[in-house]
Amino acid sequence: MRAQLARSESEAGEDDPDVVVVYDAKFDEYGLPVRDGGTSVVVIGYCPWCGGRLPASRRDAWFDAIEGLQLDPWEDELPEQYRDGTWWARDAGDLEGTSRDYVEPDKVISPV
Asked: What is the distance between the alpha carbons of residues 3 and 64, in angstroms, rounded to a whole number?
């Protein structure tokens, strides 16, 4: 059995029983989908199989950046780069896919 990693909410990983970990590029977060019919995810800080440290969430920084633009994240139309990981990857030098010291979001992770 292979456990798959969904790269974003758009991949509907919450609905696929083979997807056990989802990645949200906007917040640079990994999580375990809650299988209750909704889109809830429990954010995790470590890989469930190898124990490797996952990146710290950028959720607070995202909200700070949106607030700095004087936008309401629930009401206003957000700039394109704030809908995915572009807003933080540019500063992190990660636009070219430079390697990270933790689990890569484009890899399938498996407990086997």
From this structure: 34
